[in-house]
User: Which sequence fits this backbone?
C-alpha cells in the first residue's frame, strides 16, 4: 500500500543530491537575497533552512515584532522540497489535529496573495480520492467522519458522481470516491518569495548560498552557527532543514529519527483548463492536478526504495506514472511529459511532524518531519510558531508533536497519520 | 508588437523580465528559471538557456564560466504517455492486470 | 513570399492535399507540414502563453516551440517534425477568434514594458480572485486530444557496443567509423531525415546528407530516424538511454556513448525578434537546401561576426535562387515591422524592407543529454553556449562517454564531419580490448 508508513527506516544510500554535478567547479553566488549585507555577529533567532517552513516562521516572528532573525539557506530559495512539490493543499487528513491545522492553512492560503503581495494562484478545485478496494473505502469512510466533525464538507461519492466532476475518468475498478470541494492547489515557488520579501521588509536577514558548517553550543545558552560567510551567535535556533534535519541536529548530538525518501514528480505540456480537482488514487498513490499554467502535474508512489538524498530521475517512475495515469484517464495517452524531477520527503516514524524544543536543548527548536506535506502545513505552523516564540501561549501541537515522543520522554501521539499520500 | 526583446519564446520571457528578476535578488540560474519561467515551456530551454545564461553573466558581472546550466531534466523532448505506459520497468501494483511483482 | 523552386520538383513526388486552418493546401510527401504551410502562405499558427504574441515557424528542426499546432486531433505537435500525409488536419492553437486576428493580442500592448505576473493584481481580494479566474481561463496551449491513444506499444530493447546520438555530419561520420571497425552501432536521430546541419548548409546540401546516411547504413549502422534520446537514466537497469520514436520507446544499452547532437538554432536579442517572418538562418537554409523552398524574395540576414562565413554562404545561395539579400550586424538591428509577417527590419542605418529575416546566431550546443550522463560543460558564449568539455581524443569527463562536432563548441558541418570520423576511430581503438 502506497500510503503505509514504514516503522523502520529502509536502507540508507549516502549519495548526496547530485543535481549540480554538471557544474564546472564549486560555484556559489555571492549574492544574498534583498541585499542582506554581511552576516551579523548575533541574532535573537537563527532559522536554518530557507524553505517554506523556515520562511513562514521568519515572517510570522517578524510581523509580531521579532525582526532580529537570520535565515540561513545552503542553496537558493526553493532548492529543497519546497520548490519540488506538487502544490496540493488539502484538509482530507485522518487525525483531528491535522484536519484542524489544515483548515487554518487553507484560510491562510486564500488570503496569501493579498496579505503577502504575491500571486500563488491558489485554486480550490477540490480533491478527489478514488478507491478501488473495500479496505480503501473503509479508510475513506473513517476519515470522512472525522473531517465532517471538524466541519470539512468531504462526502463519499458513487463512481458515476466522480465522473460528473472529472468526465475523463475511466471508472473500471473504481468503487467509490471521497470529494472535498474546498481543498485546492497552488503554485509553490511564489509562496517562498512572498514570505521572504515580507520577512525581509520586517527586518529579517536572509542568506542564501550559505551552508552551515557547524554548531557550537554557548555557555549560557544559544549556539554559534558557523558558515563560510562567518559565524552568527544565535540566542535560539530553529532547525527547518526538512529532510536534512537529522544532519543538522546531529551537529549538537541530537538524534532526529526522520530519514529522506525520494519522491518523483513530473509535469506535462500546457493544456487548456479541463481538470478541476486534484485527482488521487489510493491503490498506487497516483495523483495529478492541472496547474495554473495548464500543465498536468503529478506523481505516483513506488514502494520499496531505500532512503536517499539522491534526487535523480528514473525511467521506472516515468513508466509507472504513465501506466497508471493512462489507465485512469485514457484521453491523456497522447499528452506529452515535459519534465520530471524529484524531491525529498522528510519521513517521520509516525507520519506526524516534529515540533518544539529538543529534550535537554531548550534553545534548539525543530520544525521538521512533515512527510512531504510541509508545504501545505507551513502557513499554520509558521503562524503558531511565531505566536509562541513571541510570548504567546504554545498551541497543543508543540506539546503533542515533540521529539521526546520517540524516546519515551513524552507520550506518543495516539493516532498515526496514515494519509500521507502522493 | 510592442518592442519586446524575447529571450524565451515558449514563456514570453524578455530581456526586461530578466533584468527585473536580477534586480530583485534572484541571480542563481535556477532562481531565474523559477522567477521568470524561462526554460520551463515546451522547448525546455533548448532555444533560450544559452541566451539567458550569457545575459545573466553580463547583468551580474560574472565570467560566463561561473554560470552553471540549470539541471537537465528528462525527458529531453516532450514524450507522449502512451509510449511510456508499457515500459517493462514500470512498477506493478496489486491491481495491475499483468501484475508480476505486487506491492 | 515563400515559393517552391522548380529545380526541386523531381524529388518532391506527387502532390497531395492537407488541410491547414480549414483550407485545403497543396503539399508533398517529402515535405514537413511546416514546409508545406510556409510554402502555401500560412503565417501565424498560434499565440504565445503570456502576451499572446503571434507564434509560428522559427527553427524548422523541432527544437523551438514556434510551430506547435493541433495535428489530426492531437495538441501541441511540432509542424516541422510531421511529414505531410494526405488528409492531415492542421489547426492553430491558443487564439481567439483565430491565430492571425487574436483579440487577446491586446495584452501585449497593455503590458508593453512587460508584466511581473507574480505581483499582478494582488492589491485587493476581489481583484485577486478575478485575476485567478481570468488567468486560469487563459492558461494552456492546446486542448485535450480528440480521442484516447489507439494503442500502447511494446518497448524495444537494444544492446550495442556504441550508441551515437545525433545524425548530423559528426554523428554519421562517427557511427560509420565505429561500425566499419566492427563495433555494433546504433544511431539515434530526431529529425524527419538524418543529416542534421548538412541539410541546412548550401555548401554541403541534401545530397551530402543522403550519401553519408547511406554510407552509415552500408557500414552496418542501425539508424533510428525520427527518434529522440529523451533521457539517460543511470539508476534503471544499470544505465539506460530511453529513446522515443513515433511508434515505440526504445531502451538502449551501450558500452560507449558518442554525443553528436550539434547545436540548436538560437534567436538573437533585438526588439520584436519573435515577429512571424523572423526565422533561424539555418531554417532558411533548410527550406532552400532540403525542401527547395525559397523563404522570401527580400531577405535580411541579421548576424553576429562569429558566423559571418556561414551567413555569406547562405546569402550567396539565396541570391542564386533569385532573392535580394541584405546582411546586417546584430548591433545595428533595432526592430522589426509588419502585421502578421515581417515587412521591414529597422537598423541604425534606416528601415530595410524585406519579407523574411534570417537570424544567424551561433548554434547553442545541445548538451543537456551529455549533462545527464555526468559530462562536464562550460558556458562559452563564442562557442554558442554550454559546450561539452572534451580532451583531444573526444573523451568527456564521464567514463565511456564521448562527444564530437558542434556539441563541443560550434565548428560548422565540414569540421564536424572530420571531428566525428576521428572520434569514431578513437572510440573503436579504445574499445579494442573487447575484441580479444
Assistant:
Amino acid at each position: 500500500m502506497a500510503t503505509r508508513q514504514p516503522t523502520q527506516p529502509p536502507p540508507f544510500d549516502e549519495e548526496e543530491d547530485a543535481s549540480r554535478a554538471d557544474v564546472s567547479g564549486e560555484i556559489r553566488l555571492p549574492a544574498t537575497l534583498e541585499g542582506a549585507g554581511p552576516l551579523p555577529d548575533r541574532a535573537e533567532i537563527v532559522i536554518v533552512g530557507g524553505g517554506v517552513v523556515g520562511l513562514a516562521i521568519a515572517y510570522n516572528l517578524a510581523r509580531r515584532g521579532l525582526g532580529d532573525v537570520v535565515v540561513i539557506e545552503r542553496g537558493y530559495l526553493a532548492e529543497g522540497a519546497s520548490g519540488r512539490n506538487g502544490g496540493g493543499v488539502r484538509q482530507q487528513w485522518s487525525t483531528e489535529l491535522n484536519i484542524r491545522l489544515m483548515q487554518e492553512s487553507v484560510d491562510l492560503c486564500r488570503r496569501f496573495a493579498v496579505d503577502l503581495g504575491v500571486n500563488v494562484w491558489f485554486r480550490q478545485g477540490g480533491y478527489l480520492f478514488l478507491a478501488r478496494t473495500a479496505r480503501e473505502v473503509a479508510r475513506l469512510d473513517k476519515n470522512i467522519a472525522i473531517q465532517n466533525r471538524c466541519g470539512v464538507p468531504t462526502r463519499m461519492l458513487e463512481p458515476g458522481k466522480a465522473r460528473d466532476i472529472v468526465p475523463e475518468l475511466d471508472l473500471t475498478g473504481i468503487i467509490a470516491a471521497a470529494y472535498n470541494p474546498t481543498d485546492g492547489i497552488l503554485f509553490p515557488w511564489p509562496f517562498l518569495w512572498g514570505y521572504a520579501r515580507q520577512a525581509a521588509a520586517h527586518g529579517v536577514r536572509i542568506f542564501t548560498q550559505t551552508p552551515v558548517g557547524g554548531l557550537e553550543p554557548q555557555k549560557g545558552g544559544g549556539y554559534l552557527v558557523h558558515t563560510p560567510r562567518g559565524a552568527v551567535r544565535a540566542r535560539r535556533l530553529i532547525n527547518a532543514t526538512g529532510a536534512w534535519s537529522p544532519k543538522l541536529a546531529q551537529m549538537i548530538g541530537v538524534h532526529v529519527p526522520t530519514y529522506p525518501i525520494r519522491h518523483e514528480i513530473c509535469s506535462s505540456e500546457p493544456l487548456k483548463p479541463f481538470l478541476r480537482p486534484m485527482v488521487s488514487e489510493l491503490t498506487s498513490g497516483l495523483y495529478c492536478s492541472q496547474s495554473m499554467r495548464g500543465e498536468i502535474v503529478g506523481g505516483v508512489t513506488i514502494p520499496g526504495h531505500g532512503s536517499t538524498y539522491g534526487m535523480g530521475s528514473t525511467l521506472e517512475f516515468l513508466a509507472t506514472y504513465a501506466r497508471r495515469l493512462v489507465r485512469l484517464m485514457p484521453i491523456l495517452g497522447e499528452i506529452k511529459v515535459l519534465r520530471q524531477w524529484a524531491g525529498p520527503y522528510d519521513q517521520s516514524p509516525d507520519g506526524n511532524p516534529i515540533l518544539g524544543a529538543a529534550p535537554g536543548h531548550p534553545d534548539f527548536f525543530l520544525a521538521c518531519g512533515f512527510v512531504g506535506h510541509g508545504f501545505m502545513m507551513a502557513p499554520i505552523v509558521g503562524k503558531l510558531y511565531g505566536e509562541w516564540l513571541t510570548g504567546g501561549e504554545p498551541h497543543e501541537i508543540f506539546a503533542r508533536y515533540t521529539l521526546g515522543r520517540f524516546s519515551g520522554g513524552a507520550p506518543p501521539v495516539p493516532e498515526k497519520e496514515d494519509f500521507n499520500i502522493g | 508588437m510592442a518592442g519586446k526583446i524575447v529571450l524565451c519564446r515558449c514563456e514570453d520571457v524578455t530581456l526586461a523580465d530578466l533584468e527585473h528578476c536580477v534586480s530583485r535578488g534572484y541571480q542563481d540560474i535556477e532562481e531565474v528559471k523559477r522567477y521568470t519561467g524561462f526554460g520551463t515551456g515546451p522547448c525546455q530551454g533548448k532555444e533560450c538557456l544559452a541566451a539567458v545564461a550569457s545575459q545573466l553573466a553580463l547583468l551580474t558581472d560574472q565570467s560566463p564560466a561561473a554560470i552553471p546550466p540549470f539541471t537537465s531534466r528528462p525527458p529531453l523532448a516532450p514524450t507522449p504517455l502512451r509510449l511510456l505506459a508499457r515500459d517493462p520497468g514500470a512498477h506493478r501494483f496489486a491491481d495491475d492486470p499483468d501484475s508480476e511483482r505486487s506491492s | 513570399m515563400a515559393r517552391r523552386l522548380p529545380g526541386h520538383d523531381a524529388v518532391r513526388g506527387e502532390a497531395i492535399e492537407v488541410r491547414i486552418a480549414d483550407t485545403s493546401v497543396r503539399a508533398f510527401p517529402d515535405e514537413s507540414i511546416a514546409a508545406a504551410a510556409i510554402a502555401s502562405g500560412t503565417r501565424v499558427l498560434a499565440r504565445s502563453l503570456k502576451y499572446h504574441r503571434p507564434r509560428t515557424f522559427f527553427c524548422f528542426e523541432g527544437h523551438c516551440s514556434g510551430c506547435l499546432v493541433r495535428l489530426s486531433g492531437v495538441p501541441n505537435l511540432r509542424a516541422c517534425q510531421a511529414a505531410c500525409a494526405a488528409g492531415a488536419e492542421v489547426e492553430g492553437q491558443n487564439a481567439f477568434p483565430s491565430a492571425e486576428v487574436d483579440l487577446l493580442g491586446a495584452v501585449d500592448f497593455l503590458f508593453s514594458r512587460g508584466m511581473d505576473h507574480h505581483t499582478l493584481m494582488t492589491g485587493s481580494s476581489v481583484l485577486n480572485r478575478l485575476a485567478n479566474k481570468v488567468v486560469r481561463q487563459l492558461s494552456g496551449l492546446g486542448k485535450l486530444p480528440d480521442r484516447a491513444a489507439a494503442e500502447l506499444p511494446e518497448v524495444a530493447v537494444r544492446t550495442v557496443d556504441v550508441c551515437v546520438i545525433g545524425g548530423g555530419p559528426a554523428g554519421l561520420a562517427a557511427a560509420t567509423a565505429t561500425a566499419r571497425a566492427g563495433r555494433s552501432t546504433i544511431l539515434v536521430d530526431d529529425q524527419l531525415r538524418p543529416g542534421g546541419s548538412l541539410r541546412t548548409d548550401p555548401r554541403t546540401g541534401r545530397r551530402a546528407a543522403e550519401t553519408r546516411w547511406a554510407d552509415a547504413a552500408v557500414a552496418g549502422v542501425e539508424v533510428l530516424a525520427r527518434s529522440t534520446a529523451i533521457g539517460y537514466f543511470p539508476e534503471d537497469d544499470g544505465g539506460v538511454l530511453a529513446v522515443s520514436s513515433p511508434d515505440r520507446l526504445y531502451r538502449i544499452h551501450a558500452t560507449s556513448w558518442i554525443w553528436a547532437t550539434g547545436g540548436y538554432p538560437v534567436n538573437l536579442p533585438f526588439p520584436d525578434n519573435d515577429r512571424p517572418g523572423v526565422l533561424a538562418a539555418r531554417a532558411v537554409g533548410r527550406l532552400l537546401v532540403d525542401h527547395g523552398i525559397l523563404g522570401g524574395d527580400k531577405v535580411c540576414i541579421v548576424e553576429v561576426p562569429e558566423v559571418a562565413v556561414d551567413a555569406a554562404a547562405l546569402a550567396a545561395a539565396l541570391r542564386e535562387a533569385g532573392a535580394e539579400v541584405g546582411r546586417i550586424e546584430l548591433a545595428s538591428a533595432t526592430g522589426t515591422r509588419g502585421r502578421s509577417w515581417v515587412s521591414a527590419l529597422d537598423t541604425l542605418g534606416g528601415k530595410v524592407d524585406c519579407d523574411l529575416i534570417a537570424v544567424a546566431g551561433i548554434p547553442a550546443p545541445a548538451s543537456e543529454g551529455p549533462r545527464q550522463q555526468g559530462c562536464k560543460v562550460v558556458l562559452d558564449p563564442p562557442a554558442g553556449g554550454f559546450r561539452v568539455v572534451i580532451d583531444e581524443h573526444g573523451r568527456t569527463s564521464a567514463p565511456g562517454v564521448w562527444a564530437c562536432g558542434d556539441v563541443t563548441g560550434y565548428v560548422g558541418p565540414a569540421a564536424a564531419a572530420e571531428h566525428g570520423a576521428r572520434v569514431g576511430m578513437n572510440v573503436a581503438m579504445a574499445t579494442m580490448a573487447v575484441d580479444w
Notes: The helical segments of chain B are 15-23, 29-36, 49-59, 81-84. The longest helix of chain B spans residues 49-59.
